[in-house]
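### Sample
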Amino acid sequence: MSRRVVRQSKFRHVFGQPLKADQSYEDIRVSKVTWDSSFCAVNPKFLAIIVESGGGGAFLVVPLSKTGRVDKNYPLVAGHTGPVLDIDWCPHNDNIIASGSEDCTAMVWQIPDSTPLRPIMEPVVTLEGHSKRVGIITWHPTARNILLTAGSDNVIIIWNVGTGEHLITIDNHPDLIYNVSWNRNGSLFCTTCKDKKVRVVDPRKQEIVAEKLSPHEGIRPMRAIFTRDGSIFTTGFTRMSQRELGLWDPVNFDEPIALQEMDTSNGVLLPFYDPDTNIVYLCGKGDSSIRYFEITDEPPYVHYLSTFSSKEPQRGMGFMPKRGLDVSKCEIASLFNFGISIQVSLVFPVSMQSDLFQDDLYPDTAGPEPALEAQDWLEGKNADPLLVSLRDGYIPLKNRELKVVKKNILDSRPAPRRSMSTCDGNFAQHQVTLEKLLEEIHSLKVTVQSQEKRICDLENKLSKFTNGTA
């Protein structure tokens, strides 16, 4: 009698493959801040890493093509006054990145396609609303300009970065929030908290729709992410400090769909999920290995695929969107793994005999265009991501400027009541003074802009002389 020993899966032969040394990045001083974020973000154009810097917080942004040794004087994105804790690229604009910092602010930055000649110091918009450090930054998956931030004040704020205003404030978490993950259409998000609860939150109603106490019995930090079908995948620790993964149905949180113990390492497992293949990659801070699992509808539901091992412990990890993969080489994932001395880009190809496009490996994936405007989402509309085909590969779009139209807070305030004639006189005097101030401000702005243009012209001339092109 024969029996099937090996589970049939097209991802059985997925293997981690580090790129050559000349395709990696060296001499990047990854931040030493003790915060459980990935310290890295990547998209089809750029690689961003939170780095050590004096006099505040900064992160490095380099084009993907600029591999090899990174110059120590390479211009940084440096506008925060405290260490940067988290960064995230906008899914709808490859030149826009958001950052959160210990200085209690979040900032949104426009990154030029060309290499800057000096540090980028001015954000497009600064978001101020948290009373303590901002440790979590995540963009809405389908709505334009919607950004979520979470801070150590246990508050979640949802912003419209196109107007610079905060839309929703959620303060129903009693303790530190460990992570936040949107579902596929952005109608809900799940959180993990220091009070050992996983919560599913409806942000527009500002209410908790489901919660689970102690999905993992250990006291160490947990992580939770939504899968494509609406299940929740979690990582945490057992009571005996073993690392553990779980799969849950938020409609019925009582019993897990799957629960597996892994090892006794003490690094927090950060899950990176690919909704197109239903594969989750687990990277641990301080680990030298990456495990990956396939989530299916068949028991035991979370199937171990393989492990990639490296020589150095990893301090930061970045996960490339599907648009940035080389489909001609059957790459199904790309992870940027940052160690102590060298930064390695990993690809996970599938062994295939044919050079033709593999439709089953590359279903249509989330594209760069938003499915909703911010106001539509705020009014209650939902939409899945707009999909694009990878059959002919993906060419990143050119730089698209983020336009911020700040609303005047005075517009929403009622006009003061005036009942005395003397008030009219005082108001007229104040109006004249205000107009003079505005004229002076405008004049100074014109002067500053002309000086900045002159500086840029001189820097371009200097660059030409340096490169020998003048």
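The CA atoms of residues 196 and 214 lie 5 Å apart. This sample (Coronin) is used throughout the tutorial notebook.
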